[in-house]
Design goal:
It holds the Pfam family Chalcone. By secondary structure, this protein is α+β, with helices and mostly antiparallel strands. The chain has a single domain, classed as 10k-s Protein, Hypothetical Protein A, Chain A (Orthogonal Bundle). The chain is built from five helices and seven strands; from the N terminus they run ββββββααβααα. Strands 4-5-6-7 form a four-stranded antiparallel sheet. The chain has a three-stranded antiparallel sheet with strand order 1-2-3, with no helix packed on it. The longest helix is centred in the last third of the chain and has 15 residues. The radius of gyration is 15 Å and the shape is globular.
Amino acid sequence: MDVVANNMVMVHEIPFPTEIKTTKPLSLLGYGITDMEIHFLQIKFTAIGVYLDPDVVKHVQQWKGKKGNELAEDDDFFDALISAPVEKYLRIVVIKEIKGSQYGVQLENVENENVVEMIKKWYLGGTTGASPSTISSLADNLSAQLSK
């Protein structure tokens, strides 16, 4: 499924660099897919890369020693992650185009007053996140960072 080679992580055949640079280098700390069932078929429609400033670890120290699966179930951890005052970057790549109405179903719960915050919660929202594979990957990688 996901292969790391030449500083790239392949997420369902979509390459994600392990690091990007905006104002400073950001590390790929989580990745996964979103999918949905359409007419009894599971359709993968986006690949997701979550890039974070490595300093984010300073803001989640109270979870040091927790395993990835424990972090993945801890919504307080993801709230702290979202609110941490560090640079965050989400790369979302379309795998399969779907109809606007089908994608709209995914956005129904987004509140218009704060779309950016809700999108962060959509992809970084712990047990309420739209992509369990991304949440699990992010939790595992941050658990490893916290163990250092």
